[in-house]
Amino acid sequence: MPRPAATTAAAAKASSRKKAAAPEPKATKAAGRKKEAAAAVAEGKVTKKRSKKEAGGPKRARSAYMYFSQATRQEVKKDNPDASFGDIGRLLGEMWKNMSEKDKSPYKELADKDKNRYESEKAAAA
DNA sequence: TATTTGATTGTTGGG
DNA sequence: CCCAACAATCAAATA
């Protein structure tokens, strides 16, 4: 995995506050995803299950691809009315990699802003 | 401390 | 109600 080592981008700029009431603890796909973790544990790959849903509150920031899918999914569906979820996703990812960083910029901006918002929520929840 | 890997984010439609 | 592929990103856990 070619990941930039030493990614210590700890820009803790907690200023704005966001009240997270969280009346209904919806575990989205967490429970479902957990099954993979459970399977991994069963195989003995991981010693302990990395339950990440411990802290119930601030949802994670959406990636640029998340915004991209929101913005493009309808267009792709329009061009491919017969395409199902998997087809759309596959094609979507293909075009995502196809577009240049400049095109991804707007989505990255959204992702960046959401990340900032996530930091605020996290800080507020803490 | 650095790397790794699991978990989470969002979409739609179906089982 | 949960999962399917896709990419990105974070955070816990391990080496």
Automatic annotation (TrEMBL):
GO terms for molecular function: DNA binding. Keywords: DNA-binding, Nucleus. One of its GO terms (cellular component) is nucleus. Residues 58-126 form the HMG box domain. The keyword Nucleus applies. It comes from Coemansia javaensis. Pfam families: HMG_box (PF00505). Residues 1-61, 99-126 are annotated as: Disordered. SMART domains: HMG (SM00398). Residues 58-126 bind DNA. PANTHER family: HIGH MOBILITY GROUP PROTEIN DSP1, MITOCHONDRIAL TRANSCRIPTION FACTOR A, ISOFORM B. Residues 1-14 have a biased composition (Low complexity). This is Non-histone chromosomal protein 6. It comes from the Eukaryota.
